[in-house]
Design brief:
The complex is a heterodimer. Chain A is mainly alpha-helical. Chain A has one domain: Orthogonal Bundle (MetI-like fold). Chain A is about 75% helix and about 0% strand. In chain A, helix 7 packs across helix 9 and helix 9 packs antiparallel against helix 12. The radius of gyration of chain A is 23 Å and the shape is globular. The relative contact order of chain A is 0.13. Chain B has one domain: MetI-like (MetI-like fold, Orthogonal Bundle). Chain B contains eleven helices and four strands. In chain B, helix 6 packs across helix 8. The longest helix of chain B is centred in the first third of the chain and has 34 residues. At the A-B interface, helix 1, helix 3, helix 4, helix 5 and helix 6 of A face helix 1, helix 3, helix 4, helix 5 and helix 6 of B.
């Protein structure tokens, strides 16, 4: 008989924990998503509703647009700061990266509060803009406002990934390519982009999947006014329009969307990898 | 040459803007919470009365204690689950270890707070497990959100010290099980456990989305109180925000200190992604 290594014993707490708090709740959600809210019988109606009713299609569309816009802003901002930071002295770089690490554990409500004070209806910057420059006030409680607020999370997330990538970029590779007669475009196309791509796509996948499921800051700033997919789930699961089976079906669609997104990004990453 | 200079200046300006973009929303709640009034451009007067209000009003004081209790308990649960598992997975070279590493990386992405909240609502509000509205549910939800981060920190600690080789060397020199535990495991793994604990603690203290969905009416955490006071009591909101900002900053400083001075290797677990 093959001896089981004693190390497996130490996995028991983890297995029990994951079974009880990941697998069990998830299987409940899957089962629930196929039941009728009133009769409890088996049905596909919850899924059919998502793709036929405007109250679900609109949030789905909004979320895809919003997550895409947030990802572009985050990717551009983060890559820019990551590049600049990689050229700084070590102490200055650590200072900036330390500051950029704080948003990751900061409560979405604190961020909402900070932005209300700065950019709310009577926020500091709005008063400044309006009184001294005569410019119209910035409306924080809009899609633009949410984009600005969520970028507070996304730009630093992307920066931390890209700074590491730029720091690991082997400068001698670039120089070697230049010496061999490659022009600027060729150096970017064949050397820099393939090296940066994996880190960049990892950052993009974190930001994009996060934004597909985002709702905390949006709820704090604009309530239910901005119709995001995750807000719709929240509303069905714990607010007035209580319908847990429908919320479960939406949650499953969200998880599938996220898995699909990760799959596509992973596929692109493998395609971009330089041939060995 | 001139164009180059202009480009450099523009680069600097953009960088300053992007630093302020992150710095100001973090600083503003702190400044707000220590000022008597802030209705125009600049805050006026220095005061700690908004913090005293949290301590003196039972509802807020209870919220502070609830948050601290939930965070500490969630951290303890994660330590209990992750330390033995990281020990085992570090030793089990091969399939399981690698698979679990990937799982922990993508788990927080695939199961965002909204899905965890919905799932917990459904799974734990009726027999066999009827915990709905109790603090237990909040604690386990926070532990569930945090355990991938705890796991990565602890596993990184095991990997940097190469626990297996060290333990074998110690054993060959005659160290018994207790001595190996006391002199090799504890001192080397503690920095990783501490970093993970600070991270999970900070995440738990600030958690809003899942808590909003599952917490009972009697157990409001600080972020839930902040959600309400954003509308009707901005002063208290600023003090709660101040506490939460301080928690995040201190947790991060702690993790930096641990990685610089105790030498837990690079802060691999720090990224939340």
């Amino acid at each position: 008989m093959k001896k089981i290594p004693h190390e497996y014993v130490f996995l028991i707490p983890l297995v029990v924990f994951m079974g009880l708090f990941v697998l069990y709740p998830l299987s409940c959600v899957i089962a629930q998503s196929f039941t009728d809210n009133r009769t409890g019988s088996l049905t596909f109606q919850n899924y059919v509703n998502i793709f036929t009713q405007g109250r679900f299609l609109l949030p789905l569309k909004n979320t895809i647009w919003f997550a895409g816009a947030c990802t572009i802003v985050g990717a551009l901002g983060g890559t820019f700061v990551g590049l600049l930071v990689s050229r700084m002295s070590a102490s200055l770089r650590n200072l900036v990266l330390s500051l950029y690490s704080i948003p990751m554990t900061l409560s979405s409500l604190v961020v909402a509060f900070g932005f209300i004070v700065l950019l709310g209806r009577n926020g500091v910057f709005n008063v400044l803009l309006n009184r001294y420059l005569g410019l119209p006030k910035f409306n924080l409680y809009s899609w633009h406002g949410l984009l600005v607020t969520y970028s507070f999370y996304n730009i630093p997330l992307m920066t931390l990934t890209m700074a590491a990538v730029f720091l690991n970029l082997d400068r001698s590779l670039v120089e070697a390519a230049r010496n061999l007669g490659a022009n600027g475009w060729q150096v970017w196309m064949y050397i820099i982009i393939p090296v940066l791509a994996p880190g960049f796509l990892t950052g993009v996948s974190i930001v994009l999947t996060g934004m597909l499921a985002a709702f905390g800051t949006a709820l704090a700033l604009t309530g239910m006014a901005m119709r995001l997919f995750a807000l719709q789930i929240y509303s069905l699961a714990s607010e007035s329009e209580f319908d847990l089976p429908q919320a479960s079906a939406l949650a499953i669609v969200l998880v599938i969307t996220i898995v699909f997104t990760l799959f596509v990004l992973n596929w692109i990453e493998r395609r971009l990898k330089p041939a060995e | 040459m001139k164009r180059n200079l202009a480009w450099k200046a523009l680069e600097k300006l953009l960088l300053i803007f992007l630093v302020l973009y992150i710095l100001l929303p973090i600083l503003v709640p702190l400044i707000f919470s220590f000022s008597r009034r802030w209705t125009d451009i600049f805050p006026e007067g220095l005061t700690t009365q908004w913090y005293q209000r949290i301590l003196s009003k039972p509802a807020y004081y209870r919220g502070l204690m609830t948050s601290l209790f939930v965070a500490i308990t969630a951290v303890s649960v994660d330590i209990f689950v992750c330390v033995p598992a990281a020990y085992a997975i570090n030793r089990l070279r091969g399939g399981i270890g690698n698979a679990l590493r990937v799982v922990f990386k993508i788990l927080p992405l695939i199961f965002p707070p909204i899905v965890v909240g919905t799932a917990f609502l459904r799974a734990f509000n009726r027999p066999p497990v009827a915990w709905s509205g109790s603090l237990v549910l909040t604690i386990f939800a926070h532990a569930t959100l945090g355990f991938p981060f705890m796991f990565r920190n602890v596993l990184a600690a095991f990997q940097t010290i190469d626990e297996r080789t060290l333990s074998e060397a110690a054993a060959s020199l005659g160290a018994n099980l207790w001595q190996r535990f006391r002199y090799i495991l504890i001192p080397n793994v503690i920095p990783g456990v501490l970093s993970g604990s600070l991270l999970v603690f900070a995440i738990s203290m600030g958690e809003f989305e899942v808590t909003l969905m599952i917490a009972g009416f009697g157990w409001k955490t600080l972020p839930l109180l902040l959600y309400r006071s954003l509308i009707d009591d901005v002063r208290t909101a600023s003090a709660i925000s101040g506490i939460l900002v301080a928690t995040s900053v201190l947790a991060f400083l702690g993790m930096t200190l641990i990685s610089t001075y105790i030498g837990a290797g690079r802060m691999r677990g720090i990224e939340r992604g």
